[in-house]
DNA sequence: GACCAGGCACATC
DNA sequence: GATGTGCATGGT
């Protein structure tokens, strides 16, 4: 079944076109967005990021020095603001202490090392870590999210009980290591999921029907 | 009002 | 190791 994965990409790309996803105003903003968007609509995240920008604090040092209540007030629209302010501070702590808040220094390290470091930060799990690696640091790591799991399991390509790593291995196995491809493919899953693959299926017009043999 | 959103940590069995 | 729960705003 996993042989279908490249064909699914072709279909989604044909149906939706390139997504130009997660542009962000530089890698640090992408990293912040990756944390803020946990289980949250992106529109709400944009409001939170705009608050940070408007206050002139969308940089590692400002967030690092800011007290928790001020930060949570600014990111309030993104939801879970108390938890996310702690998670943001945990991340910028790592980023400022470990890399002086410089993406260039981070980029000198190997992907596997960075992934392990990110996963050690409280509040950063596999999806957030991989989103940072792919979208901010341009590493060829396939991001698995709720939509990806739902689409694949609904089409019987992999069991829904499979874990994050099992899903990820599928993509790494059958696709070339290509940052642009991984970026677009994940974005296409989100697009498909929003329009046709909600928890309650509304599959009319879904470009994956009928699925290839 | 119900449903949903680009998760994660933690408790419990 | 699997399963359940808290966290919270805002759009449809």
Question: Structural class from helices and strands?
Answer: mainly alpha
Query: Can you give the mean pLDDT?
Result: 95
Tally the helices: 12
In angstroms, what separates the terminal alpha carbons? Answer: 9 Å
Q: Spell the H/E element sequence.
A: HHHHHHHHHHHH
Q: Tell me the radius of gyration.
A: 18 Å
Largest sheet: none
Uncertain residue ranges: none
Count all strands and give the number. Answer: 0
Strand content: under 5%
Helix content range of the residues, please?
Answer: 55-70%
- Can you tell me the overall shape? globular
Question: If you had to describe this structure to a student in words, what would you say it looks like?
Answer:
- It is a single chain.
- With 213 residues, the protein is mainly alpha-helical.
- The chain contains 12 helices and no strands.
- Helix 1 (4-16) crosses helix 12 and helix 5 crosses helix 6.
- The protein binds a DNA duplex (13 and 12 nucleotides) through helix 2, helix 3, helix 6, helix 9 and helix 10.
């Amino acid at each position: 079944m996993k042989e279908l994965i490249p064909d699914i990409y072709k279909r989604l790309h044909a149906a939706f076109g390139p997504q130009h996803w997660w542009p962000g105003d530089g890698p640090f903003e992408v990293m912040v967005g990756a944390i803020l968007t946990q289980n949250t609509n992106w529109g709400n995240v944009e409001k939170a990021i705009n608050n940070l920008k408007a206050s002139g604090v969308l940089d590692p040092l400002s967030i690092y020095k800011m007290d928790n209540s001020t930060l949570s007030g600014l990111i309030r629209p993104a939801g879970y603001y108390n938890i996310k302010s702690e998670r943001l501070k945990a991340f910028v702590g790592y980023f400022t202490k470990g890399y002086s808040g410089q993406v260039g220094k981070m980029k000198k390290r190997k992907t596997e090392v960075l992934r392990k470091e990110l996963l050690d930060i409280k509040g950063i799990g596999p999806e957030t870590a991989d989103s940072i690696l792919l979208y901010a640091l341009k590493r060829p790591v396939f991001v698995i999210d709720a939509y990806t799991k739902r689409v694949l399991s609904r089409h019987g390509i992999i069991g829904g009980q499979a874990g994050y790593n099992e899903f990820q291995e599928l993509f790494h196995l059958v696709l070339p290591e290509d940052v642009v491809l991984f970026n677009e493919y994940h974005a296409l899953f989100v697009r498909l999921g929003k329009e046709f693959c909600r928890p309650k299926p509304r599959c009319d017009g879904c470009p994956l029907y009928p699925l290839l043999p």
